[in-house]
Amino acid sequence: MAGVTESFYDRVGGEPTFRALVDRFYEGVAGDPPLREMYPEEDLGPAADRLRLFLEQYWGGPKTYGETRGHPRLRMRHAPFVVTPTQRDRWLHHMLGAVDTLGLPEAEDAELREYLVRAAQFMVNAFE
Ligand code: HEM
């Protein structure tokens, strides 16, 4: 597909780009004990898949997330976790660092960062 109807997902390179983003993000999480401790599973692989499939769907790629997990309801799904502004900042630090490594075109880079900052703020559900 080409031209103005092409999705953001396609414009940034499709699945390999989202895989790279999420893999780098989780490398950061794995090396950040206060953040890592929030993730219930010993293996971060399944959490990485859920985040990748969600982001792919959000940006116009395959709808696998919805088919396997249902409606995202992300704020509700984060309710069991104490997401403070400090944890948000840790999450964003690793995620925006992962975006840095993608080398996206300027417009897509800015759009992705704005979304992530907004989404992370939305997930805050506790204050220190
Ligand atoms: C603000 C800081 C955030 C923290 C500390 C956080 C933490 C977590 C934790 C601990 C989980 C459970 C891991 C698992 O899937 O087993 C999770 C799941 C998830 N998070 Fe976050 N998260 C944050 C922000 C976000 C944002 C901004 C997004 C989306 C843009 C997001 C998307 C997801 C998705 C899609 C799942 C899996 C939901 C499902 O079960 O289907 N998270 N998060």
From TrEMBL:
SUPFAM superfamilies assigned: Globin-like (SSF46458)
A Gene Ontology molecular function term of the record: oxygen binding
Stated name of the protein: Globin
Pfam families according to UniProt: Bac_globin
Family: Belongs to the truncated hemoglobin family. Group II subfamily.
Originating species: Propioniciclava sinopodophylli
Keywords on record: Heme, Iron, Metal-binding, Transport
Taxonomic lineage of the native organism: Bacteria, Bacillati, Actinomycetota, Actinomycetes, Propionibacteriales
